[in-house]
Amino acid sequence: MPASVPHKLDRTDRRILQALQEDGGLSNLELAERVGLSPSPCSRRVQKLEEAGVLLNRVTLLNQKALGLDLTAIIQISMDRHTPERFERFEQTVASFEEVQQCYLVTGQDADYLLKVVVPDMDAYQQFLLGKITRIEGVTGVHSSFVMRKVIDSTALPLGYLPE
Fold it and tell me: Do 69 and 98 lie in a common domain?
């Protein structure tokens, strides 16, 4: 078991996690039926998974296209200095931008950060880039790529790696 998992997850815990990854809106009764438990034990298991930090939260995924958010950009950001203060300020700033879906500090590339950004169109992207990203102190390089089609777009974690 990976060191980050605080307690052993049995087959039922893994079934609960899988079911909730597929549909986080399941009621406790629906979840219990899906994993073969009665409602009370199912609820207790879910609570233990939440308390252990395995279940972070439940969200509703929205249809990006139906909302007119048609452009997804992957942005590589280079910074001028590699100091904790510079990185902290950058991270705090991009965390305040609703357009930023994901932000990763990376290694092995010319970029320091990878961002996934969602906006309605190229005009909105230009405004976001010039009005927000390039104004962050320390940003020295920006390379944008645009998603043509989402081949795999999943939020589910691979639970097959968890030991039985």
Answer: yes
Mean pLDDT of the chain: 94
DSSP state of 33: H
Q: Is residue 15 part of a domain?
A: yes
DSSP, res 62: -
Residue 153 lies in a domain: no
pLDDT for the residue 161:
86
Structural domain harbouring 18: 11-60
Q: Among positive and negative, which fits the CA dihedral 90, 95, 97, 100?
A: positive
Contact 6, 52 (CB under 8 A): yes
- The CATH number of residue 53's host domain is 1.10.10.10
Does 98 reside within a domain? yes
Average pLDDT over residues 9-16: 94
Contact 103, 69 (CB under 8 A): no
Backbone angles phi, psi at 61, to 5 degrees: -90, 130
User: What are the tokens at 60?
Assistant: 């509703």
Kindly report the pTM of this predicted structure: 0.86
